[in-house]
Amino acid sequence: MEQQKNQIDQNFAKVEINPFTTQEMLIQQMEQFLNQEEIQLAIFKRSDCNIILENILQKLKKLNNLNIFKITLQNFREIDFDHLFSHTSNIRSIRELDITLFKDIQQFKPISHNAGHYLCQLNDLQILNLQMNLKRFQYSEQTFNFYEVYQKCNKLKKLDFTIKSSNYNTFIFESLLDGIRLILNLEKLNIRVYGKLCYNSLFNKLYNELKDLKNIKSLELSFIWSYGAKFQEFKNLFQQLSKISSLESIKISIALNIQEVQQDDQYDDLKKIMSEFQSLKKLNFNLCYCKNINLIKMLESIASLPNVEETTIDFYVNETSSFQNNLSNLVKALCSVQSLIALNIYFSSIIEINFEQYLNLISELKNLQKLKKLTLYSQMNRNQKTIPHLNFDDLIETAIHF
């Protein structure tokens, strides 16, 4: 085991360059790069960032074994993106590329050429992770055109995009999504948006790009600081995703505006849609700012998934109206999902919920014969409660927090 750990350490280098890093220290750190398979590079608050980057990337392109390259840049007045992407594209052995630009960057130099023009030269690229803060960044639609990457990097299996902006992000992500349909081997797509969106436009673009991909198994969508999506938009998204037969895992984090929904048949429609996910084994809902009675009815649709094995429900309670009874309905619905192996329920509340009654509801879940993992977490009470034994004899892992 110790020999294996040493081997891993020998193939991995982590280098951090800050204002106190001298030229001598920098040379010593760069000596670690020789024959490394993974390099994590972080540069903080350096006025000579572009020069350092160019020197390091010139050295890295000579490495034939570098498979994973992760670079983090923070606190700069100016970054030359052309140099960053063009020099990175010369490291042809890269299989996983992770570029993170932190929030404290003060001023960006506009990109004259799009990143995709350079990165498409990484023929062995399998994972692309891009995290950027655009609040003070000059950009256009062409900036985020990765079409050439999707067209030429035919080994790509995972895309992970996180974009933060105070402006509308719809066109940015439509640009990022454009051409994903060409990645025939794509298995995972993660999208995180911090800012304003037009949901209908984005959801339609997403579906049109994914619908013909036969290997897509995992989809994560997180919309933060966005206006609430309407229930109809949410339902339309799942109706579209239900047609992608290869999907095994879906994670949705979103604020929903479903207070206007009054007709029960709309929730019945959602249940019918959920029943069409034949391959879906993992579902994660992170929801907030919803009227509770509608929220619970919507969550009950999870019970319609025919083969789900793991589900996570994370929601916020902001009113007292009939919440306890509706929570009871949710638990009873989940008790019918006999395929469940893992169940995670998280909720926070501004109200006090009857603790004993809540545990009685949860104890009903012992009827799930395949359940091996149960996590319950609530932030509703300030004082720690004593947890009675729930008699879940077959559970391998249990975590209950109040």
Describe the structure.
This is Kinase domain protein. It comes from Tetrahymena thermophila (strain SB210). The protein has 402 residues and is an alpha/beta fold. It has a domain at 2-227: Leucine-rich repeat, LRR (right-handed beta-alpha superhelix), CATH 3.80.10. Helix content is 30%, strand content 26%. It contains 13 helices and 15 strands. It has helices at 2-10, 23-30, 49-60, 81-88, 115-119, 147-152, 170-177, 199-210, 231-241, 264-274, 292-299, 323-334, 355-363; strands at 12-17, 38-44, 68-74, 96-101, 127-133, 158-168, 188-196, 218-224, 229-230, 249-257, 282-288, 310-317, 342-349, 373-378, 397-401. The protein has a 15-stranded parallel sheet that branches. The longest helix is centred in the N-terminal third of the chain and has 12 residues, at 49-60. The protein starts with a helix and ends with a strand.
